[in-house]
Structure prediction request, 258 residues.
Amino acid sequence: MTKLCANLSMLFTEVDFLDRFDKAAEAGFQGVEYLFPYACSIEDIVARLKRNNLTQVLHNLPAGDWDAGERGIACHPDRVAEFEEGVDLAIKYATALGCKQVNVLAGIVPADVPAETLKTTFVNNIKYAADKLAQHGIKLLIEAINTRDIPGFYVTSTEQTLELIAASGSDNIAVQYDIYHMQIMEGDLASTISRNQAQIQHIQLADNPGRHEPGTGEINYPFIFNYLNEIGYTGWIGCEYKPFDSTEKGLGWAKSFL
Prediction:
């Protein structure tokens, strides 16, 4: 059965961040995800999760200066120490929040860095993070992102994601498969998910074009949901989209799942 979690970085943005937990529960969601928890105290987030009986499904490792346009630092060879510090901070939050999956954003490729150095840096970083997270029962996820929304992003396809995981030699890294990003970059959604089902631990959705809710674009979401049930996918599906109107008005597509 499809399990939806609300992405609080995208949904219910008309209210303050902590109040979005309440809104998600009122809408029927049983889990939440978002980009980063670090601007809030652990105690405040834990209180909202408990009050609303919500599962903390996912958040990201620290990803550099987001407001300045950075989208991760895991491929940056000059910022390994910062990356490692971020792993410790993510563990502190994830363990307190009961979050069993943490995503790493690879980042935008820095200028004048050889391809082999980029790969070595990223692989070493994900192995370091995965090993430390494993000590706390937390899985590391890697997400490929389209280069139209984030030009120059380092990880851009399912195949590349799997190659990087294999290069790390870690069994504590899995794929976060974003339907929206992969529709843009490679298509062939159903067979890709089925072929790599054992390594896909989390899925995110949005329609294309526009990155709005299912039913506003070209992706056949009724087919996708049925297909995921048929192949026995049991993980969460994160609703990481920009509502076409208000969040509540755009949840009609999800009523049967909430």
Remarks:
- The longest helix spans residues 115-134.
- DSSP finds eight helices and eight strands in the chain.
- The chain has a mean pLDDT of 97.
